[in-house]
Write a structure and sequence with these properties.
3 strands; mainly alpha; single chain
Length: 177
C-alpha cells in the first residue's frame, strides 16, 4: 500500500530529474521541477480546453475571437486590428477566423458609417448566445481542473505564474550565457 502511494506521488518529471541526477549529477535540474511540470500541465489543459470548445462546433481560435468581441461590450464589435490587439488573438489568421465565424452566422461584418474603409466584426444574436453558453461551460471546466487546489492555493499560483511570466520576459532582455 505504501509502495503504491509512493509510486502514485512520483511523476514523470521526478523520474526525469532523478535520471539526470544519476547521469549528470553536476547539472542543476531545478528548472525542470517548475517548467517541465508547467509544460505538462499546459498540454493536459489544452487538450481538455480544445475538446470542450470543439463540442460546440468552434475552434479555440474562433472561441478567442468570440470572447474578445463579447468582452468589448455592446455593440460587441471590433476591427480586425483591435481583435489582434485584444491580447488573446494573434494577428496571423484573424481574417480566416472572421470568415469562418461569419459563415457560421456567429458574426457579421459592418462598415463604419463615417469611414467606409473601416470594417467591424460584430457578434450576431446567435453568436452572443453561443459565446455566453460556451464561456460559462469553459469556466466550469477550468474550475473542475483546479478542483484539487484550495482558493488560497489558486490565488497563490496565479501570483506566482504572473511573476514567472515577467521573469521569462525579463530573461529575453538579458544576454545569454
Amino acid at each position: 500500500m505504501a509502495e503504491r502511494r509512493a509510486t502514485a506521488e512520483r511523476d514523470a518529471v521526478a523520474t526525469v530529474v532523478e535520471d539526470w541526477a544519476r547521469e549528470r549529477p553536476e547539472l542543476d535540474t531545478a528548472p525542470l521541477e517548475v517548467l517541465a511540470r508547467l509544460h505538462r500541465s499546459f498540454l493536459r489543459y489544452s487538450t481538455r480546453l480544445t475538446a470542450s470548445i470543439e463540442r460546440h462546433g468552434l475552434s479555440v481560435a474562433g472561441f478567442d475571437v468570440l470572447t474578445a468581441l463579447r468582452r468589448s461590450g455592446r455593440p460587441y464589435r471590433l476591427t480586425a486590428g483591435q481583435l489582434a490587439d485584444s491580447g488573446l488573438v494573434s494577428s496571423a489568421g484573424v481574417t480566416l477566423r472572421i470568415d469562418r465565424l461569419e459563415k457560421d452566422g456567429l458574426i457579421v461584418r459592418e462598415r463604419d458609417a463615417e469611414d467606409r474603409r473601416v470594417v467591424y466584426s460584430r457578434l450576431t444574436d446567435e453568436g452572443l448566445a453561443k459565446v455566453d453558453e460556451v464561456f460559462a461551460e469553459h469556466l466550469d471546466n477550468e474550475r473542475r481542473m483546479l478542483g484539487g487546489m484550495s482558493p488560497a492555493e489558486c490565488r497563490q499560483l496565479a501570483r506566482l505564474l504572473h511573476k514567472l511570466e515577467h521573469s521569462i520576459l525579463a530573461s529575453d532582455e538579458e544576454p545569454a550565457g
